[in-house]
Amino acid sequence: MEPVKKLTSSIAPLDRINVDTDQIIPKQFLKRIERTGFGQFLFYGWRFNEDGTPNEDFILNHPAYKNSEILAAGENFGCGSSREHAPWSLQDYGFKVIIAPSFADIFYNNCVKNGILAIRLEEADRVIQAGKEGKSAAVDLESQTVSCGGHTWHFDIDPYWKQMLLNGWDEISITFQYEDAIRKYEESHV
Amino acid sequence: MAKTIIEKVWNDHIVYEEENKPDLLYIDLHLIHEVTSPQAFEGLRLKGRKVRRPDLSFATMDHNVPTKNREVIKDPVSKQQMNTLADNCKEFGIPLAHMHHPDQGIVHVIGPELGLTQPGKTIVCGDSHTSTHGAFGALAFGIGTSEVEHVLSTQTLWQSKPKTMEIKVEGDLGFGVTAKDVILAIISKFGVDAGTGYVVEYTGDAIRKMSMEERMTVCNMSIEAGARAGLISPDETTAEFLKNRAYVPADQYEELKEKWLSYATEEGAVYDKTLTIHADEIEPFVTWGTNPSMGSGISAHVPTAEDYTQNSKKEELKQALAYMDLSEGMPITDIEIQHVFIGSCTNSRIGDLRAAAKVIEGKKVHENVTAIVVPGSFTVKMKAEEEGLDQVFKDAGFEWRESGCSMCLAMNDDIVPAGERCASTSNRNFEGRQGAGARTHLVSPAMAAAAAVTGKFTDVRKMNVYA
Q1: Contact assignment for A80 to B197 by CB distance below 8 Å
Q2: What is the tens place of the pLDDT at every residue in A74-87?
Q3: In which residue ranges of chain B is pLDDT below 50?
Q4: Chain B, 294-353: which have a CB under 8 Å from a chain A CB?
Q5: Which residues form the Aconitase/3-isopropylmalate dehydratase large subunit alpha/beta/alpha domain (chain B) (predicted)?
């Protein structure tokens, strides 16, 4: 996967709590057998009217956020289904960083595995507000900071996941280095 | 020091541990279905990797399968996804219960049915309702497709040690109150993210007295409270259920049973957090909103904005009621429905079908209602037909279908039309879950049956079926 280090971008503000993965990508789009091309279906039910035209009221359809690489949202983002199609669609649409006060566990893991930086930030509501005001944010994974509107906030991330993201490692290749330990475990347990 | 089952199962599966790193955990059973696996198998092929332990993997088709006529798969993309699973299982040597196989069913129904699910195992599947298997005292959780690929190639996963949570259900359940009502009440009381970062163990008298099927219903919806895994310490009920199952060798049963029971949480073990709910505060439940915590007892009303202090919650209520086309403060019993779905990995087992059949026996489905029953597996379907339940449903005006996930997520043709309302025994009432614009109300099988008969939500305890 592509490494994530730092970026500066406008912030798409999705001011809702408990955004579930059924909203991020509805089930009718889970039938594809590829990993790519899901961006067109992102937030489908919210982004489009019943006749397929864009819903002008939905925040991502606002021209100001057309090129945003940062999405800021309310607590418990990504709850519900384990579908990895959710991070695939966010990434394919163009988001590289998601900032929220909290994330659902499976969604958070799925983001890391795809090189999306999900940032748990208590002050996420202030980032949402900055996004509404058209401000940008700078995100730096190395220093674990989000800077926006004259403030800089520190965020926590598991050191292991941080290394994975910074280096864009393939986790399976890493695990293969523990082949001996796996074999020993199997010999003593099966 | 006394240990919880969570710590015991975890410690038993550590392949490698190092400070400041997640643990490398061994996975005993990998369940696979057609929706979340194709990209994982493709990843293996692209890198020339093998499946390490096809013998510890088991696949079935459930999400896309037609429930009316198995021979007719209208959507070519659905068909391709199922064919892809069959090809992948063949290529990598993984056992598959395909659409016409006698072991076919919803992945979380057949695991226990076959005895693949056992206490003390680590079980994963690319599906968030994998927590169902926790009912047996297994550490079972949903994973994404990248992790599916990781398990296929290494039979392990890197996992950070979770915090432990006890949810205690004290006292005895009242008359007509079911396992589904218990878990909906828990989620409503503690919230959709109460369990985030935790593995939950359900304890207390009410849980202990539950059958295995009821325990599965409770553990199934752990993820709706944010917990990836929810489990129950094994006991005699657990061991009895597993006796004579296909994957439980009869000659090793006693030995296995002793091992299984040894995983139970020890007296005095400490959890990071304990939440308590009293069984007598739980009545038959109905959700009125767009996440599983938005529910009330049947005698209650839809809340009003004044019931919340946080602005984000008030806003969420407004959005939910707008989608659901309900008004603040209206009685739950005033909500009229047009569809009933009895099925899903939460409530499609034989006990669920018996409970629903008991309510509708000798009655008719309301003229405004379309009702379907989708058994959780081929085995459940056969058993129900043996008992004559299919006839009870059909006589009442229900459609009797083939097994699958069906209308729980409407990936096949079983869709609730936009603007219509469904009393559903499934697990999620998210916007569009049962079809674009469809409105879902989560209930128990008995409450779904009661709604089918009366055309609106009705307290099943007042229907004289339990006399």
Answers
A1: no
A2: 999 999 999 999 99
A3: none
A4: 312-313, 315-316, 319
A5: 7-455
Candidate from B20, B145, B409 with C-beta closest to A84: B145
* Cβ atoms B338, B423 nearer than 8 A: no
What DSSP element (H or E) covers A105? helix A105-113
A59-79 tens-digit pLDDT: 999 999 999 999 999 999 999
- Contacting B residues, span 66-85, partner chain A, CB-CB under 8 Å: 75, 77-78, 80-81, 84
A22 contacts B428? CB cut-off 8 A: yes
Q: Among 3.20.19.10, 3.40.190.10, 3.40.50.620, 3.40.630.30, name the CATH number for the domain at A6-189.
A: 3.20.19.10
A176 vs B: CB within 8 A: yes
First vs last C-alpha separation in chain A: 34
Q: What average pLDDT does chain B have?
A: 97
The minimum CA-CA distance between B91 and chain A, rounded to whole Å, is 16
Sign of the alpha-carbon torsion through B25, B30, B33, B37: positive
Task: Note the ipTM here.
Answer: 0.96
Query: Contact B193/A102, CB-based, under 8 Å?
Result: yes
Q: Among B446, B444, B450, which residue's Cα sits nearest to residue B426?
A: B444
Is A134 an 8 Å CB contact of chain B?
A: no
Q: What is the arithmetic mean of pLDDT over A108-118? A: 96
Per-residue b or e along B280-310, where b marks 16 or more CB atoms closer than 10 Å to that residue's CB: eebbbbbbbbbbbbbbbbbeebbbeeeeeee
By CB neighbour count within 10 A (0-12 exposed, 13-18 middle, 19+ buried), where does A134 fall?
exposed
User: Does the CB of B193 have a partner CB in chain A at under 8 Å?
Assistant: yes
Strands A136-140 vs A145-148: parallel, antiparallel or unpaired:
antiparallel
Give chain B's domains with CATH numbers.
5-274 (3.30.499.10), 297-462 (3.30.499.10)
What order do you get walking across the sheet with A117-120 strand by strand?
A117-120, A97-100, A70-73, A6-14, A136-140, A145-148, A151-154
* Binding residue positions of B: 345, 405, 408
Residue in B52, B146, B224 closest to A114 by CB: B146
